[in-house]
Amino acid sequence: MQTVKAVVSLAKNEPATVTNINVPDPIKGEALVKVLSCGVCQTDHHYVQGGVGDNYPYLLGHESTGIVEAVGEGVTNVAPGDLVILNWRAVCGECRACAKGQPQYCFATHNATQKMTLEDGTELEPALGIGSFAEKTLVAAGQCTKINAELTEDQYAAVGLLGCGVTAGLGAVLNTGAVARGESVAVIGCGGVGTAAIAGAKLGGATTIIAVDIDEAKLARAREHGATHTVNSQQEDAVEAIRELTGGFGADLVIDAVGVPATFEQAFYARDLAGRLVLVGVPAPGATWTIPLDEVFGRGGSIKSAWYGDTLPSRDFPMFVDHYLAGNLDLDGFVSERISLEQVNEAFETMKTGRVLRSVVEFK
């Protein structure tokens, strides 16, 4: 058992608290990880707001790099000293998705068996089964994806973002949307996930990449990550603009990175006939869409949601790191500021302004 400093959400809509927690030594199937970096993600703030559940207290944080410090019995995929990216899809290998050869959809992903606790023994619920706004965290060994590439300390923060938001956007285009070379892609919403989708479209060989947002600063940033065209949907009709930029037809692939009914409808009608729509923005509970069923039938194509960008961490994380080191994927551009653990609440407020892609906690 070790006592470390961490960020915990004790009650709904209250500021997160920096406090000491107890982290058990790993048992069978578990790994103890010394955290090096952790991105501040919208999902963590959803926990604070009660948007994920009511199982307080929550140990926040999940977009991380770390060094494996110890492993429990039977762990073979990582060893002490390994550099890892933490992931929240530790595939079980046994559920019906895994049995069909689709582990990226695993329906029974593993988390650590033991619970980390407050100093008084109160059990913590780790965000996405990870809980890495902490100097050390306990996870299922399968939540550790080993990275063999040589990285500098300055690169840990960027690479750790592959643990969630950046991968969700990249995967929405490359995996769920299956972009092909020469295709057109439109991305509605240019926050962190949407910007990653734009980077994914560039990586996948799309030649027309259209960024849609209401914020000119976000649109400018989208161009830096690969957008060939931008549309301010407060100033012009997004659907008509996308059609005009694609020969009057609509895009081959449209990504809704917002997840509200209005943007979903825009994405639906901005597709070419037989085009694809991928929803990666997380909708609010109870959100509905009212597109006529004959329109769904008549336009053809596909409508999909992207679960973690249909990512298989063991396959995709090392590949994305290789692209980063080769200069094909600008992960550094997603790190807007580097902060301390004590600045997480401030980072939540900054995140609301849209001025940052990611604030990243660095552990020295």
Automatic annotation (TrEMBL):
InterPro entries from the UniProt entry: ADH-like_C (IPR013149), ADH-like_N (IPR013154), ADH_Zn_CS (IPR002328), ER (IPR020843), GroES-like_sf (IPR011032), MycoS_dep_FDH (IPR017816), NAD(P)-bd_dom_sf (IPR036291)
Keywords tagged on the record? Metal-binding, NAD, Oxidoreductase, Zinc
Organism superkingdom: Bacteria
- The residues covered by the Enoyl reductase (ER) domain are 16-361
Q: Which cofactor does it need?
A: Zn(2+)
Q: Which family does it belong to?
A: Belongs to the zinc-containing alcohol dehydrogenase family.
Q: What name appears for this protein in its UniProt entry? A: S-(Hydroxymethyl)mycothiol dehydrogenase
